[in-house]
Amino acid sequence: MPAWEMLNHEQHASLRVSRACDGQRHFAQIVADEFLQAAPYYPILFTKHPETGAFYAGVVMGLEPGQNLLTKEGVLADYRPADLERQGFYIAEGQLVVDRDHPVFVGPDGQPVFNIDGEAALPLKRVQHALHMLETGLPETDAVIGRLLEHRLLEPIDVSMSFDDGESLTLEGLYTISLDTLHALPDAAALDLFHRGDLQLAYAQTGSVRHLRTLGRRRNDRLADIGR
């Protein structure tokens, strides 16, 4: 069981939070409000919860579990999704709690959660903002996905890559928005999606798929570095 503790300055004055474990995250869930921030840097795709079968959206940062191809010295250089920002922190019964066993608290480069005066330091403020974004954004994103499914706009995407070392990888269980189906919608349906802001999200998502090529290049570059 996680070692959850209610966060407070008295007990956690020396607590430090590190971003180093980002390097082991190859996928992170995002909410609809993050699409426009994430799309310039990551492929945004949909997948299903293994337990419930419900769709959710996320950014792909690596092609294999445990490998983030977009970190530099273990840290993401660009937009950091809320799901990563809040690692180790949770809301339980309306209170902010921490899982002291989470690797985010054992990195050597951790930053203090609290200032000397006991006020929330910048890392904790980011955590609080991320948790709020997820709390409000998850139901909103479920509603967006529900409308996409209503119009049969999600379709499986074939992601198969070959690399300089002769290895091939296929990513399974990923979905994208079908632009063909979107463009074939009746005017009234398309107008409704436009007014709801869903069209903007759809084009951001489909445009972001090009970053899969970036991941492939990054993997080849790392293979070349290892071979030197």
Automatic annotation (TrEMBL):
Matches recorded under InterPro entries: SapC
Top-level taxon in the UniProt lineage: Bacteria
Protein's recorded name: SapC family protein
